Amino acid sequence: MKSSHRVRALAICLGLAIVPAWAGSEVVLPLPAPQQTGGLPLMEALARRQTRRDIGPDAVSDSLLSSLLWAANGVNRPATGHRTTPSARNWKGIDVYVARADGLYLYQPDQHQLRQTLAADVRSAAGQQPFVQQAPVVLIYVADHRRMPDADPANVAFYAATDTGFISQNVYLFCAAHELATVAVGWVDKPALAQAMQLEAGQHVVLTQPVGHPLRAAAEPPPAPARAAAWRDGTYRGRAPGYVADIAVDVTIADGQIADVAIAEHRESRPLAALESMPRAIVAAQGLDGVDAVTGATITSRGVREAARQALQQAE
Hints:
Blueprint: H1 3-14, E1 21-23, E2 26-30, H2 42-48, H3 62-73, E3 75-77, E4 82-83, E5 94-100, E6 103-108, E7 113-118, H4 130-134, E8 137-144, H5 156-177, E9 181-182, H6 190-197, E10 203-212, E11 234-241, E12 246-254, E13 257-265, H7 273-285, H8 298-315
Antiparallel strand pairs: 1-2, 2-7, 3-4, 5-6, 5-8, 6-7, 8-10, 9-10, 11-12, 12-13
Helix pairs in contact: 2-5, 3-5, 7-8
């Protein structure tokens, strides 16, 4: 055995970082063996399944990524090549791409490996929200209509969406079992992403799904600044991430009191209740103590609160 092969085999056995192999001009990343036994009981995983957008930038380990991809659409019956998810007429028409900072990869279930298709970071095209772009792993589900030659053209999109849903739910359950954050993202400029990925005719982006460790401080927002004896008069601006993009908040101090809180900039779509009620609540409370997030708009509420906190710090 060549020394390079011995190094790769040793790395996989020890669960170390994936060592790339070069097949001609292609970069292939062999994945460690996935975990296929044990883990959280199914009913507990179902009870914990949730959408989480508080995705931090911390790297997902190679062993965790390996098991995630196997759960998503890996081969669970080697004798037949059948997978962990069903597929209409066994067309296997959905490919799972992995977008990371070091490039774009195609997951190849039969070999359980990643093949690099681009040495470029396409995460910025995989979703409009900031959490998509900072996630260490973004799964991109691509339907290959060329593998569905016998399908009624009117039903091709239905088959692709259904099969993608199976894969996405497997990812949700895996993330629930392993305390990872994930969310299925439909707000994607699909033609732009397809162009960035250099997809071929017949390949169509269906959905993206960022995955990562939850932000460590997401559950506990920063403490409110202490009430100053008298804030300095003026208008101060703070800025913090919202659900879609940054939210800018202007806080006006007059006679040492909070006279007005206004949303200066935002790109939120809905719900907008937090943008309307949070400023009024901050004025009424003369600070942030006791100002809670609006139900159904937690991320937007957190953005308004953090931006106001930054503004009030400037007024101290």
